[in-house]
Specification:
Elements: H1 14-25, H2 28-32, H3 37-79
């Protein structure tokens, strides 16, 4: 399973996701016999890359916020 497609966080995968939608539109039998498996794998790889990029950015922002908070607490401790 994959998360909801066509969201603002998955803009980099739009082309691959559209190809998957087109493949799914070909019908159930096409999907049943693995006609969409390669495209599905590409979607999963693309979504994973997007997620890893987001988590790396979030981790860096959290680290910066943590450093700022620690600096503020250090200043409070020094002035107390």
């Amino acid at each position: 399973m994959h998360p909801h497609l066509h969201t603002k966080t998955n803009r980099g995968c739009e082309e691959v996701m559209s190809a998957l939608d087109e493949c799914h539109a070909r019908g159930f039998i096409h999907k049943l016999f693995g006609g969409c498996n390669d495209i599905k794998t590409q979607v999963n790889k693309c979504l994973r890359a997007e997620r890893l990029e987001r988590t790396a950015k979030n981790r860096e922002l959290a680290k910066q916020k943590r450093e700022k908070t620690l600096a503020i607490w250090k200043e409070i401790d020094e002035n107390s």
